[in-house]
Amino acid sequence: MLYSQRDKRWKKNRLGTCGDTIGNSGCLITILAVLFNKTPLEVNNLLLLNGGYSSGCLVNWQVASKILDFEYLGSGKSAPVFYPCIAEVKFGSRSHFVLMYDSASFFDPWYGDIGSLSNRYKKIVGYRYIRIAENVKNSLSDDFKTILAIFRKYLFA
Asked: Which one of 71, 81, 101, 109 has the largest count of C-beta atoms within 10 Å of its C-beta?
């Protein structure tokens, strides 16, 4: 299921322990929700209950990876070797995270849709590299591949 961080069901909920909301700054937890078949509110609560935030509303990758059962491989500026990968882009003057399926297509939690990177964001400023265990039952990786194939067939054909 693809979600928008601005969905009325959670957009006004506080993100972590800072003064911001999921609707305003919950792009990363929305990506994690989509990847692991949860809602952004569920991910937010899991992180809150397990010390998964640092400095108020920054995701602690080590804790999040244990809670959601994925491997965090670090961050950098080099193009990813495998996908999915979380990319940091500029969204006006702010940073924003999107989930890349390949070098051009991505899920955008602000809009809750799949798009072409070059059409919406001009520059990737960094990456967060993750590896999802193949035997994780709640991963939606196969669903994303199917959605992406349909998207390409009908919109880019």
From this structure: 109
Strands (E), the chain: 53-54, 58-59, 70-76, 85-91, 94-100, 105-108, 113-116, 124-132
Alpha-carbon radius of gyration of the chain? 15
What is the b/e burial string over 108-137, where b = at least 16 CB atoms within 10 angstroms of the residue's CB?
Answer: bbbebebbebeeebeebeebbbbebeeeee
Burial of 107 (0-12, 13-18, 19+ CB in 10 A): buried
Identify whether the C-beta of residue 29 lies closer than 8 Å to the C-beta of residue 14.
no
Non-local (6+) Cβ contacts of 15 within 8 A are: 21, 22, 24, 25, 26, 29, 44, 57
* pLDDT tens digits along 91-114: 888 999 999 988 888 999 999 999
Q: How many CB atoms are closer than 10 A to CB 155? A: 10
Give the orientation angle of helix 61-68 with respect to helix 27-35, to 10 degrees. 20
